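Supplementary notes (optional reading)

For those who missed the lab, this is the record we used. Protein: Acyltransferase. Length: 395 residues.
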Amino acid sequence: MSRGKGLIQSLVGIRGYLALVVVAVHLAPFAIALAPATRGFFLPIWHHAYVALDLFFVLSGFVVTAGYRTVFARWPGWSVYGRFLWARLSRFYPVHLAVLAVLVGAVLGARAIGREIPHGGDLGVDLLRQLTLTSGWGGADALTWNGPVWSLSAEWLCYLLIPLLQPLVLALRTRTAVVVGYLVACAIPLVAYSVIGFDDGTITYAMPLPRAIGFFLAGACLQQLLHVDRRLPELAGRVTGPLALAGFGLIVLTSNLGLSTMYALPVAGLTVLALGEERGWLDRVLSTRFSMLAGELSVAVFLTHVPWLLGSSLLINPRTFPGAWGWLGIVLLLVGVLVCGWLAFVLVERPGQRIMRSLVKRPRRAPAEPVTERTEEAVEERAASPGSAGARTGR
């Protein structure tokens, strides 16, 4: 459990590919409109690849539990709790705030010249929910402003609840108990949405919390398994590639059967556990320099791609790129996604993160285990005793 120190690189790399899947989901309607011949490729992605977001929740639960398992084994005090929340917030809030400001400015500017940029929200309650990261707590009528923020909002609630969620997971102290806990956690969203429906509205803005909390807890259970048993993680590590392919196969199977691809998560989620063992060809692919860079850019790409697609669609559409030119339009949309993500990362995410971290005084004493966020060096990473299993993750 302490073979090495630092990050599990493949858990950083996989974030980049999951973010690209989310981009493909939102690019799909624009691509189909520009080049109808791409319908066979993009239509299944549009309707079924949203499962990538659920894997993000699993990954988040795994990583946060790795870094903070002993910190929140019992109530650590308001100071430690506040530093934890501030560190997590610094990971994405600067980019979120910057994108939201650009969106508001663009909408107001477009209205001044008689145009309209689709954003689905108002300057009152909808904007306030975006600012306070409560847009993904359910009860909304639609996705507004920067739509993908609902998932970060739902994950933010998981962070707020960590003093309650973490002790529940740590109470599972046998292999059987952890496996049952994992299955129960996966059942929370699957049972809930089997009753109320898997439609897009329900699982995103109307009632997304069962989805976020359930799969976050599932990831936490996978991390807990590393501390109560080695046989299952080692077995998963020996078949990382086949396990990932089995998860993908189940996603394809459920989509062809007309079922929600969310049903594939109990198997697909095990890929996170397997990658933690750092074995096999898939781990090597996800640990390459390209994959690591994609993982580093994932937050910025995730937060900027929908505003870019909506704004650029005013210029890149079937009227301006007719016929075979539609393929060029798709390429320009995709290149724009990557450029916007890179600029947001370089100009906003890293500087904003440093500024937010500088506002918090470093703790004199370190928590019992290291924090696993690669970019939390200023506040949390110094708080660690390296070499434990919890030190080796990648969110």
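If you only remember one thing from this example: Residues 78-112 form the longest helix (35 residues).
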